[in-house]
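Our collaborator T.R. sent over the components below with a one-line note: 'Predict the complex.' Nothing else. No constraints on interfaces, no templates requested, no preferences about which chain binds where. So this is a plain run: every listed entity goes in together, and whatever single assembly comes back becomes the starting point for the next discussion.
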Amino acid sequence: MTKKRLSVLKTYKLYINGKYPRTESGRYLTVKDHKGGFVANICHASRKDFRESVVAARGALGGWSGRTAFNRGQILYRMAEMMETRRRDFEAALVDIAGYSAEDAEAEVDAAVDRLVWYAGWSDKFTQVFGSTNPVSSPHFNFTTPEPTGVITVFSPKNAPLLGLVSAVAPVIVAGNTAVLIVENDAPTVAIDFAEVLNNSDLPGGVINILTGKRDELLGHVAGHKDVDGVLCFGPTAEQKKEIALEAADTVKRVKFYDDPDAKGWRADDQQSPYRIMPFVEFKTAWHPIGA
Amino acid sequence: MKDLLFGDMWGYDPAPQGTDFVELDERYGHFIDGEFVIPEESEFFPSINPATEEPIAQVAAATEETVDKAVQAARKAYEKYWKKTKPAERAKYIYRIARMMQEKARELAVVETMDGGKPIRESRDVDVPLAAAHFFHYAGWADKLEYAFPGAQVSPIGVAGQIIPWNFPLLMAAWKIAPALATGNTIVIKPAETTPLTAMLLAEIIQEADLPPGVVNFVNGAGATGAAIVNHDDVDKIAFTGSTAVGKLIQRQLAGTDKRLTLELGGKGANIIFDDAPIDQAVEGIVNGIFFNQGHVCCAGSRLLVQENIHDEVIDKLKRRMSTLRVGDPLDKNTDIGAINSLEQLNRIQELIGAGMEEGAQMHQPDCDVPETGYFLQPTIFTDVTPSHRIAQEEIFGPVLSVLTFRTPDEAIEKANNTFYGLANGIWTDKGSKLFRVAGALKSGVVWGNTYNKFDPASPFGGYKESGFGREGGRHGLMPYLKLS
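Returned assembly:
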């Protein structure tokens, strides 16, 4: 029996520098729904895709970190707006592919939107909370402010395909860093749907780059890349932890590991914290004499 | 016309600081579990006075077994006393240490100078008072930690392993010990092998202050002892100050463990002089930036970036100022530049001076007297340096300045940021808007505007990039020693 109308499938690509290129490798990963049905062939990002993403993230760094904190906050808030308007798509994907109940899917999207709003609000506040003026014992004006570390590679959570992504990247970019996300989970198409949210949110190209691929395959290249300033990894295995830290030492990279709780766990309030901004800021202390 | 320079037409009388009141032991071991110990099988190495080349004491090198004893003592002290000690009581212990250091300031300064070669003027006026001030500052934090990190619960990490360098032996011990104690951690600390003696005096102070045994333990030794601390399973946190090469090694060694790490590593600081700067003050800042402590300073202003149109004026004034610097006996109160810390370090500096000359830079040294014995070096500057020269990229850790030029603020920023390091930079300009813009663009943890090499216990210090991570000083210096939840 022929169908009345053949649906048009989406080609899932990568998201690099605000554009959607196919993977340079020509390789693919097959995404199946939770019942084992075919969903899509998605890009299996290569080392070269990663390198291109780092170039994009480095290129975007000056512009993004140079924006006012207020403006960065507005853009994060805009991301929440865009996500809210597309919530049915995300819910459907979580139900169909990740096998969520309708209720859980709704809860995850709610939490993801709210988390973006929450971090949006931190953009012009964490500097006041974590910076300081320092009462030195000499006639000097002395103050300390946080600044972004630079280009951060994020091995995003495997659990909570949407909320995990948001929770991982929002605290990184809110401080002015740029990011390359490497996504490996059961519903990686969600990450590319998320890229479409980003693309409609006034977020400059290159600030967040998204690669669907294999964590183990890219691990060494990421941590050893000389133009990457920090690596963030959720739920690493002991071997992954060791390899990242070992490679990162060559350029004294900042490395941070967090657990990857289950979908419900990601919704908890303790999975959002201004202290999640801290691993990828540098504190700069400036001195100036006081006198006539 | 000849300049009239003070001390030029007539000599200075020596003004030596007496040492007769100082009593040092012939041999030092370790301070473990509240006791000074020298294990029977110890191997000893001499601690040499670099100004005389004479050994002042023999110091034992701690083996893995000795380090293990120290860690066990620290663990026991953590569980048994220190984590149960009321924060307000912890504070009082640390205040005691600060006061006792002030009481013994003269002795500490003299031993610091004998052991490390730095001018008594600096150890007396900078190292010792600042070290005591660090204990004083952090003492007050011990019972106020809940105010330091809003919204978070704080708790200590456990046993901290700390490894410190030879350039500021007592001050670095204070930077490491004071915040670790205030936050409720116990400590195994290793002084540098060439400068262990003031740490032994600090251990005496800690003993006299009646800290519970094992809360602070000192082990002496070189790299192998440091590695034993880094690799010990029961150490929860490593804090290291020293070279970038060793810092990377430690970061590698800790890969795959849950030990916390902070690194304060090398630097290649730029002192940027704009043409609207107060030149005479800038010249003083340049001298202080590179010749303070013989240039054995990780945040030294070892690259001078001078705006091209004032290059000749700045260099003329700098050379004139350099000719007034007095190189010699570190115990003489008139001495500006003391002894290079060790023969090994002198050789390394000489090698890089050689590289500077081979690569085509112009070397200038003032015509000054240098003692025949001891490890001494004239203040040295190189002009015609390009960013690719080794002396513009590698940390020399000696009284050697590399001079480069720039034309625009953007070029100054680019050149200043053009190293793997990112510890400190200086900016000299009369224009506030320019100063703030350049300060914001420099990739370094410290920016000194119209000043250089200022330190304070309330002021966070630490690096960007390969100069390390973590901060010491102030509220930010508490963070590496606390778990936040």
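Summary for T.R.: Chain A has one domain: 28-289.
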